[in-house]
Design brief:
36% helix; binds zinc ion; 250 residues; Rossmann fold; alpha/beta
Amino acid sequence: MTPQEIERYARHLILREIGGPGQQKLLNAKLLCIGAGGLGSAALLYLAAAGVGVLGVVDDDVVSLSNLQRQVLHDTASVGTLKTKSAATSISRINPGVQCVGHAVRLTNKNAMEIFQSYDLVLDGSDNFDTRYLVNQTCVDLKIPLISAAMSQWEGQIGLYDPSNGGPCYQCVFPQRPAAGLVPSCAEAGIMGALAGVMGSMMAAEAIKLITGAGQPLRGEILIYDALFGETRKLVTSVNLSCKSCKSVK
Ligand SMILES: [Zn+2]
């Protein structure tokens, strides 16, 4: 580490659970974030600040004015530009030592493998079930741990899906997508902006724990945060032996 890096990461270096070896793991880590929306914004800001070596961002959308109420990676001047470009600008402003790789494409089963294969960890901050199942299947196939979060209105949830290390995959826990129209989008249901900050920051914290080996990850657990009542609770999840998605790794 350079003297500048030692100063930049000083508050991590004195943490017993991270220290020099943990910070070095963060500097060497390659993390892919699906979506540079509300969840991705907070997660990417903290992971850039933490010095994660490579931050990949998958998003084919452009910044719109109604995003800015919660997507704090983007600003007013970036309305109309690609989210991957706006993300790269913000990330390099926070930490020029981080390499940001933009993938301005819609994720499909044709391109997912090729995009995912150069990363060690995936964060899913996407907003639809098709993408979540595709992200899960690609992570299962490549044995990449997946931190997935979701939110609506005032409530968010987060879990780690890591079947190659003994936990359930996303599809073990959510075997069937809800019927079309049953789960309203943020545009239809609304969302309290700061909830994206809380849940995205939890994603970053879980990623930092997993990369450095600190503490106990949310493997086989879902943490639910209800902002309206200021409550959290945890659910225990388990491997579904008849899950079609991860049967190859069981
Ligand atoms: Zn499974």
